[in-house]
Write a structure and sequence with these properties.
Blueprint lengths: L26 H24 L3 H15 L4 E7 L7 E7 L22 H8 L3 E3 L12 H6 L4 E9 L2 E10 L7 H36 L3 E6 L4 E4 L1 H7 L3 H4 L14 H12 L4 E8 L5 E12 L5 E10 L1 H25 L7 H12 L5 E9 L5 E8 L9 E2 L1 H11 L4 E4 L9 H6 L4 E9 L2 E10 L6 H44 L2 E10 L4 E11 L5 H10 L3 H15 L8 E6 L1 H6 L1 H7 L6 E5 L8 H10 L4 E7 L6 H7 L3 E4 L11 H17 L2 E4 L5 H9 L4 E2 L10 H4 L12
Amino acid sequence: MQSPNLQLETRVEPRPTDLADLADLADGEIARRINRARTVLGECHRALIRATDEQGLLDTICRIAAGVAGYSLAWVGFAEDDERKTVRPVARYGEAGSYLDEISTTWGHDTLGRGPTGTSIRTGHVRLARDLVNERSYQPWRTAAAGHRLASSISLPLLKDGVAFGALMVYAPEPDAFGRTETQILTEVADDLAFGIRLLRERSDHVRLASAVGQAAESVIITDADGRITYVNPAFERVTGYARDEVVGKNPRMLKSGIQTPWFYDAMWAALTNGLPWRADLVNRRKDGTLFTEETVISPIRGPSGSITSFVAVKRDVTAERAFEERVSQLGRERTLISETIRDLRAGDTPEITAQAICRQVVSLTGVLAAHLCLFELDGRAQSIGFVIAGQTDPPLQRVPSRRSQQLRVRAAEGPWIESWVSQPSRSYSGLLTGIGVHAVASAPVRHGQLLIGLLSIYSAGSVQELAVTEALPALAEFADLAGAVIGRDVAERTELGRGRSHVARIIARREFHPVFQPIVDLASNEIVGYEALTRFADGSNPEHLFAEATAVGLGVELETVTIGTALAASTALTGSAWLNLNASPELILAREPLKSLLRGCQRRIVVELTEHAAITDYPAFRAAMAELGPIEFAVDDAGTGFASLRHIVELRPAFVKLDRSLIAGLESDSARQAMIVGLGHFAHVTGCRLIVEGIETEMELAVLRSLTIELGQGYLLGRPLPIEEAVGTPLSPVHPVP
């Protein structure tokens, strides 16, 4: 019969292989192939009837396919439930049997799982490989197949409840060997084989049942129709403490604990006497008087006449499980309380207020004497921001000693842990915790994303061996996650801000920078007419990024002030005729006095370049601040980027406008850019300012700018930024003569 699961999958262009379309094959060849498949089916039926064990059946089917029907190779593989999703060969037959020793196959989504075998198992569908030499998905096994003269294959899933637990693979020496009729026949073979495997396994299960009952971990009790015990297994004796001879002939009520109500048992007997199985937890009493809980299933057994002749009870001791479940349930209730409490915290509270509130709720957990939340600061020390002792006034918050802070930080990076509490001077609140009877401490890291920001700890009177302490650890980890979610952002921003401020402050204090000077060239005469002072940092930081970081942490004006002062001091070595461009932010200019003090008494012509990293919102106030700086000139930097605009030029009336490199890249081949630069040149002339083109890097760019009568230029082609000792040695006429 045709399997309802017959669905063919192939990744090559299908070719006609059924009786209606095989015009290109001789009738004799068609008949031979179909007979070959039918031979396998017929012999398979006979093998199923005679089969007594699974391995024998597997070996026989493979032998029939390869040895009797004449296919090159047949093998059966079972899908392993391991990490690699391995397909394990369990039977094989055929002259190409060693092929399996040369290959590996999986049923996962990796390369080794996308072949016919893996695809068949994964999808539960038949998979044809019509041409093993050319099929793309067969590439990992192509060489081995060719070496064994295997040209085509069919992979047939072995199904149980619609899910494949393995596959039967059959190979032929000729390409395209499995037409529709052969495929249908072989699919029936695979279905029969799967049925036989399932049948043999069930039969084996029944054979093992009798011995399994005696060896089972679960207690088994059999009673007659009147409820008298006729059999108990050894597990019953181990769990209850009663020997078999002590209970046979008695009623199981001898085990009753008295905790469960009479109507509980009434409901049980009502179900059983009506022929229904009954399942529930029974709390019983052992021979020594201790209570235990059993997960119980009692089933009525009917005789040939249909009447109930006995009852079979299978019981599993779940005392520890139920206690654990109750503990988990309790922890769940406690976590819900904490979650609700944290959700009610006010958004504007500081991390310290929030941490104290969290610790106060954590202390309400069963067995917890105290709770502590600390943050890891930039200097490596841990600072307490929350500490609560049950039933006592909150103690003052302390810093954790340096050595202990380092130990905690290293340990916290590995995850939650439990340790015995030992009073030591290096531990915070040591005497206080010892005085309230602490014996164990459980700790969990507090994170914001992947950033470790702190540690949440609870202190317990129980020892580390006690179940309650161990069970508290998962809940503590959740509380730590909640704390990270609530205060993490504020703490991380505070930490990052502090780290950035510390970085910039160190650079300022240690003067870890030096000025460099890049020439500004008159493109008509090819002479250096000015220099732009730039800053380079000792640690290799990107200057633009570091100045932005300094602004973000409130040290922008201070960093600009010291770098400009250093540049001015070094610039005294430059030729007296060249002007000096200094970069200054709107914030520095609006601060007035720092820059005004630096420029006071300066004899050199100064041009202040307005860096465009922040918008100017009040032009009148800004013009007033510019005027206070005295007789200096201004330049609008990076025109065409950032906030620079024609309005800046109109509002501020700078002496210079600097065009950004982005406007001249590829200028020689871009007529639109050329036209724009000509227009900007005209605009500059009308408004009374001069253009400086930055970023000139190629001879072609320089030639085009000269042809457009651009007056001033700057870039690596004309001169790189150099330290003062090298800049003063730069000739006034670089090797870029005017044509």
